[in-house]
Amino acid sequence: MSDLIVVDGVDKRYATSSGPVDALRGVSLGVGAGEFCTLIGPSGCGKSTLLGMLGGLVTPDAGRVLVDGRPVNGPDPRRAATVFQEAGLFPWRTTVENIEFGLELQGVARERRRIVATELLGPLGLRDFAGKYPRELSGGMRQRVAIGRALAIDTPIVLMDEPFGALDEQTRLLMGEWLLDIWRRTRKTVVFVTHSLQEALALSTRVIVMTARPGRIKSVVELPLPYPRAMESAELVALRAKLWSEIREESLRAMGEV
Amino acid sequence: MSVALIRVVIVAVALGAWEVFGRLGNPLLYVPPSAALPALGRLLTLQSYPELGEHLLLTLREIAVAYALAIAAGIGVGAALGLNRVVGRTYGPILAALYAVPAVVWYPSLMLFFGLDAASKIAFGFLLGFFPIALAVLAGIRQVNAQLVIVARAFGASGITVFRKVMLPAMLFTLVGGLRTGLALTVIGVIVGEVLGAKAGMGSLINHAYGLFRTADYVALVVVTLLLIVASDAVAGVVEQRARRWTE
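YS: structure for the whole thing
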């Protein structure tokens, strides 16, 4: 089976003031087209570093990352779009202008990009906020604008680095439902970083648990369950217990290091 | 009482006091408004200095050239220091220290290098205007949210595009503030340069009138020069307001 994304034995080490830190060691994984693949693990386990490699923002020290069979050498906005934890919206741009950003960089004509951005406003639930600036939007709305900016360039892959991490619990659950709906309609390949067990179980087709630093892959849990998922079902309760025991172990190790 | 009325009263009281004390003093050194106003009239009707227009034009041209050079060098140097951390750490403090030196100490050597003509005035105006612009660009780049730069890179922006689409708008307000200060200092530099030693320009006329004890003409020339400075700052102020509205 040929995966859309292939990570092959990557290492990453960062130099810090207190000596080198191993962020990732010998990580290999494959993500098939159309999957919703979630990376979960304790803080500092290298999830974001791994996601950065997929997006071409981080260069591995060893190993390689392939998308569609070709190596990733730097960001490629035709293959993958990224959504960051901090929405990272441009404060001098309105909602539509922020959504248009990627298209603007690709040289798409003004009228054309306005059409694409305006069409996205409906599914994003931002129809009445097209001309608003980021400071006039709530946290959830800002994150939806950031997701819209990623969807606008219509890449086969969307990388999401804890996109709902800064939101309150209720907003987070609603955003999860909303994202699921978008994903099922667009059939994009999503790689999603989170440290919320709930989020991982509700959204993913597959969960990859990472170890405490240095980040390795501890286990892979397939979730071939229909959507929307009843979190109280016996199957999910059992999976939740299994995932939690693995993550707990790594989180304890991560805490012990501190 | 409205603000406008208060302002009128303040100006009237000041002019009245000036009139009274001006009449009390030596007429060679003290000029009351009743004498300065006719002198201003004679100046503007080209009776006292027929070649006023040429001098004014020369001063404006010196300011324009000095300011254009200050903007180009200020943005260039500021960007070089801001975008490269090592260069910035090395030269940033030197730049700030040089800015603190009273610039007039450089003027004698500028006259030696560039002579008594326009070049030394342009050089002095440039020297004064350059520092606030370079330091504003440096500060502006440092305050750009690093996250926004990462976002732009993730969407495929090149170095130039990041500067144009992210850094420039993010630091616009700081930049425009620096440009405004830079303009004010360039104008001061050029005029001070002319007063200290020149054959032409508003500053040289001021020096001429002052040296010949033509005090009323001197006052009239100062008034015209002040109007020039106030007008240039007013234009810069409008631009700054626009930038503020756009950035927020």
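YS: worth flagging: Chain B is about 85% helix and 0% strand.
IM: good catch. Also Chain B touches chain A through 19 residues (CB under 8 Å).
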